[in-house]
Design brief:
Length: about 375
């Protein structure tokens, strides 16, 4: 039977693509191959091997494998499977090869069995951790290791976003894949400003975390002339440097030489002369305080040319129009001209609040 041969680390990505394209043979399972490869079963009407959609991956003939359990709970010991279905967590999160799950008391007493079942069901998961809530000044998750495939217990891993690998560490640094689409929109907005200015730009992100906003920006030829990036969390800055270095090396138009990375409070950037009046774009992602931090961002922007602030915030849904007007008033207070303000809801946050994206274009 025809199968698509893929690197083990890319199995989930290709499974998702084949399923979405209706190429996956649902009656058969994934087969483990030698040298860290896996074989994904294909329907007879899936494109031929020569089709560009496969990105050079080869098709192989492999004996079909009967589908195993469809859910990790089916791998629990039989006496546990007899417990009510609501005993078990209904959802979990995977970052790279680290699985994170919240356990209620009724499930926590079976944590070891849960971890074993999940590791058996999900071959690309290395580590299963319980999410015990957030802690510390940086509000990172307190993770308890429940099970490990290879004995390692570190939570540093890599995730793939828009084709780029991003170093993350859910036990030390905040990272959310839920803003992935917003990072694509950021790319489009920066490209539009580049076209308007007809020159490469400098992008500043004082709340960069591990830097996911830069992965797509670095890969766009001719888009950037430099970047200013930082975070208050030292562990985030370590991974930020690592990510920026790898993305810079892979740029088709050569490594980016003008990279400044700092570990400091974003509100203090305006006190560093080398960070002021350098940026064409400033990104502001501190959802509960983004609006309050905006006045401290203006000194970072270049003067006398069109610039942009793009950010995200949690706001009262009923006050969106008022927030839009408040942004315009703030820009006018800072003597901005040629002002354009956009603000729209991205998703709900609570019954009265929502997560919004805002974008301000102006010249100062």
């Amino acid at each position: 039977m025809r199968h698509l041969r893929v690197p083990s680390a890319e199995t989930q990505d290709w499974l998702a693509l084949c399923k979405a394209s209706d190429w996956l043979l649902s009656t058969s399972g994934v087969v483990a191959l030698e040298d860290s490869f896996r074989a994904i079963p294909l329907r007879s009407d899936a494109p031929d091997e020569a089709d560009p959609c496969w990105k050079g991956l080869v098709h192989v003939e492999v004996e079909s494998k009967g589908r195993g359990p469809l859910h990790w709970t089916e791998r629990l010991p039989s006496q546990l499977q007899a417990l009510p279905a609501e005993t078990w967590p209904a959802a979990y999160e995977i970052q790279g090869d680290v699985l994170i799950v919240k356990l209620e008391d009724s499930a926590a007493i079976h944590a070891s069995a849960i971890a074993s079942a999940m590791l058996e069901q999900l071959p690309n998961v290395r580590l299963v951790c319980a999410d015990d809530g957030v802690e510390g000044d940086f509000r990172v998750r307190r993770l308890t290791v429940l099970g490990s495939r290879d004995g390692t217990k570190h939570t540093r891993t890599r995730v793939r976003e828009h084709g780029h690998l991003v170093w993350v560490d859910p036990g030390k640094v905040y990272f959310s894949a839920r803003l992935s689409n917003e990072r694509n929109r950021t790319l489009e907005s920066v490209k539009e400003l580049r076209s308007l200015r007809n020159q490469p730009l400098v992008v500043a992100d004082p709340y960069a975390g591990v830097g996911p906003a830069f992965s797509t920006l670095f890969s766009e030829p001719g888009l950037l002339n430099g970047c200013l990036a930082g975070d208050l969390n030292p562990d985030a800055v370590d991974l930020l440097r690592l990510n920026l270095e790898q993305w810079s090396r892979k740029r088709t138009d050569g490594p980016l030489s003008n990279i400044e990375v700092v570990c400091m409070d974003a509100l203090d950037w305006k006190g560093r002369p080398e960070l002021c009046a350098q940026a064409d774009v400033v990104l502001v992602n501190l959802p509960h305080d983004s609006f309050e931090h905006l006045p401290s961002m203006f000194p970072l922007l270049r003067k006398g040319v069109p610039v942009m602030i793009r950010g995200w915030a949690i706001r009262e849904r009923a006050l969106i129009d008022a927030d839009r007007n408040a942004l315009r008033a703030l820009l006018e207070k800072h003597a901005a001209r040629n002002i354009g303000v956009e603000l729209s809801e991205i998703k709900g946050f609570s019954s009265t609040k929502c997560f919004v994206a805002f974008e301000c274009h102006f010249t100062i």
